[in-house]
Amino acid sequence: MGASVPPADAPVLAIGGAVKRFGSRTALSGLDLRLGDGEVFALLGPNGAGKTTTINLILGFLKADAGTVRVCGIDAGADPVGARRHVAYIPEQVALYPGLSGVENLRYFTTLAGLDLSRNEAHALLAEAGLTLEAHRRKAGAYSKGMRQKVGIAVALARRARLLLLDEPTSGLDPSAAADFSATIRAAAGRGTAVLMATHDLYRVHEMAGRVGVLSGGRIVEEIDPKTLDHVALERLYIDRLPESTA
Question: Could you list the residue ranges that cross the membrane (predicted)?
Answer without folding.
Answer: none
